[in-house]
Amino acid sequence: QPWTVSPDFTHHAHTASLSAVAVNSRYVVTGSRDETIQIYDMKKKVEHGALLQHNGTITCLEFYGTAHLLSGAEDGLICIWNTKRWECLKSIKAHKGHVTSLSIHPSGKLALSVGTDKTLRTWNLVEGRSAFIKNLKQNAHIIKWSPDGERYVTVIANKVDVYKLDTASITGTITTEKRISSLRFITDSILAVAGDDKVIRFYSCDSQKCLCEFKAHENRIKDIYSFEREGQHVIVTASSDGYVKVWNLDLKKIKDVPSLLCEVNTKARLTCLAVWLDQTSEVKENCDNAAASSQANEDEKLSVVRKKKVCWMNKNDKTTKREIKVIPAKRKLEAPLQKKKKKQDSS
């Protein structure tokens, strides 16, 4: 059944184009070429404030649970933020050049980063220090942990290298014809890869074989996001052609092209995308649905529309956000990031 899209919340946040976006259960944060990170409280639908620690374009943002945010920028810094008070707990000079990408291990104890100094660095987040440095032959622009934390991948131009955690060695390589701009783990062993060739491809991390490919947009694909909804795998894509598209993926028929659930033309040049889950509405509407189903008269089936927000970023019109109304996933938040300075946090 097709999903519907309706506008919800729009805010012009930055004085330059957006470069990164991240979400947790309550907040959306955006990073920009104006060197600031803007915070939005999505439950209240208001701008919450700004973070001004960096002196360079914000290149990457990632939440861990409800208590911490990591940010990276062209100034070479990685900052660890407490999201309760929005204070910078630690600022690390991570790379000699730009920080191009970072990823937090599912345990919250480790993070990986890559930069323009041709290094891959492992960070001990419990102690806030560097744990390992690996030299790369070229600059990587994407790094990502698998959901189970057993492997990670790096992207260099049109090449994906798959690493195993226990050996920190490359177990396989995936190569595409054109530059890769976005990558997402669909499962622990299946990757969705997209880029300048307008095509989305699903690869097996074990065999590095392409399981399925299909043309998704008319221009380069800038970002991919995925989530699970009651056993249904959903993929959301954003492209320079201005379209945001939502796809239904059947993992049991991975070789089949995903079906298009809905699309919206933002009439903007999109740069990044994230999905915010409205969990409060989900709880309320579950109760409403249970009450409605107990009524005797069920001649017409009740359809309860629950909310899930898709936040996409517009290069020309600064920030644009919309709401896409779908049935949300039921996903537990991970445990908070372990902190070294508990006394400092409690003061």
TrEMBL record:
Cell location: Nucleus, Nucleolus
TM region(s), chain numbering: none
Matching Pfam families: WD40
GO biological process: negative regulation of signal transduction; ribosome biogenesis
SMART domains xref list: WD40
Annotated Gene Ontology cellular component terms: nucleolus
WD repeat windows: 11-43, 51-91, 92-133, 214-250
Location (main, coarse): nucleus
Keyword line: Nucleus, Repeat, Ribosome biogenesis, Signal transduction inhibitor, WD repeat
Superkingdom of the source species: Eukaryota
Task performed by this protein: Negatively regulates the PAK1 kinase. PAK1 is a member of the PAK kinase family, which has been shown to play a positive role in the regulation of signaling pathways involving MAPK8 and RELA. PAK1 exists as an inactive homodimer, which is activated by binding of small GTPases such as CDC42 to an N-terminal regulatory domain. PAK1IP1 also binds to the N-terminus of PAK1, and inhibits the specific activation of PAK1 by CDC42. May be involved in ribosomal large subunit assembly.
PANTHER family: P21-ACTIVATED PROTEIN KINASE-INTERACTING PROTEIN 1, PAK1 INTERACTING PROTEIN 1
Protein name: PK1IP protein
Species per Swiss-Prot/TrEMBL record: Alectura lathami
Protein encoded by which gene: Pak1ip1
